[in-house]
Write a sequence for this structure.
């Protein structure tokens, strides 16, 4: 089972990024997926979750209205659109099966002017 997250980088406050996650080794269409994030010294935080069909999504209060999770089960991909970023969004972002928390390598998002 692998999750390869990409798309992170340095962005100015108010900017946008699109994170992508390529999955392999399992049938993505059978699983709810979550984007998590972690800042050094803080616990792993669930940011956005999407059900296996993509019909339902859920977001942390801190990102509602700014982030959007989506998936393409045919392409084995899960994405996270990040808009109107602020310094509090600086973290390493991880794409995981729901409940797996912050595993893997993730991708770093840094919001700074």
């Amino acid at each position: 089972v692998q999750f390869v997250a990409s798309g992170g980088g340095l962005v100015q406050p108010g900017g946008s990024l699109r994170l992508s996650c390529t999955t392999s080794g399992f049938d993505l269409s059978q699983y709810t997926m979550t984007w998590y994030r972690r800042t050094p010294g803080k616990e792993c935080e669930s940011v956005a979750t999407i059900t296996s069909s993509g019909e339902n999504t859920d977001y942390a209060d801190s990102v509602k209205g700014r982030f959007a999770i989506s998936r393409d089960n045919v392409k084995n991909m899960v994405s996270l659109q990040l808009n109107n970023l602020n310094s509090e969004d600086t973290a390493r972002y991880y794409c995981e099966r729901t409940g797996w928390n912050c595993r893997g390598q993730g991708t770093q998002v840094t919001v700074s002017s």
Remarks:
- The two ends are 37 Å apart (CA to CA).
- The mean pLDDT is 96.
- The chain is about 0% helix and 50% strand.
